[in-house]
Amino acid sequence: MKRYAAIGALALLAVLAGCQSGPKVAATVNGDKITEDEFFGRVQEVDAIELYGSARSGGSTKAGEYAMQQLITERIMEKLAADKGVKVTDAQVDAYIAFTKKFPEAGGVTGPNPMRSDAAAKREARMQLVIRSLAMKPLNIGPADLQGMYNQLKPRLMEPAQVRFRVIMVSSKSVAAEVIKSLKAGVSFETLALTKSEDTTTKAKGGDSGFVPEPGLPPALAAALKKLTPNQTASDFVSVTFPGQQGQPPVTRFFLPRLLETKPGRLMPMDEVKPLIEGMVLQQKDANAPQRVREQVREFTEKAEIKVELPQYSDLVKKIRDSLAPSPAVQPGGPPPQSAPAPGQ
Description:
9 strands
């Protein structure tokens, strides 16, 4: 019995030892562990848009390699930021994401990816902000610099009045007459928009246009909306003639609007456009900032102790370092070297 008890105790100790060993490690960056669970979770998040973008830039084309590279890159940038005294707050990340949603076309901003999870969007935003902060830090850019640039840009930061409405668009007066008759008979505007409207953009939403800048509306439609109060429908259709395309004759369409709400024009406050302001001040003070940060990242990556425990990605560290290597010298009369963006850009 004592022998079996001893065996049982040893088995229990073995189990406890296994539990204490912790999760398996997939990679380390300066001793900071990336667990296999973290790696496999990230692989599940990789989407087709990310892989397509990576492939176009000569990067990874497989989800596993791409995920591991992203995890290592993030750890490198986090440690570089800490080394340089750069800190990015959650509030800054949220503000940056709000900016990119409102201005997806702004220079230096990653465009919208409908497949990207909220967590992935926050990670990407944080990396972008780390890079921006690293570029700005040695330049001592302060509130006065930002306010000065904001003041210069005020005329371009005026947001026009916007209007949100429901609309039924038809191409014939006879259909327009049928719609008016149905409305008077008690059929809802939303139902008629869904069944009668020829506007493919709004009909599935009950005719809801979303907020539209007033200057972008046809003048006749804008004038009709100005006469309405919220939740009021125009008494009749508005005729709008559009120029024909590719030599075709003009076409006339008939619109029946129902006003939902309006937003007056305004000057966008600094907080909403701060990434844009920072980028312009940075460009003004140091046009070479992206290359400067890239060199910081390259030097830090060269010195970093990076280990990948998964054998199928054993050559990934070399690939990361090679991607950051300085461009070869340009021969006289030859083309300028092409600089790749820093990780996360």
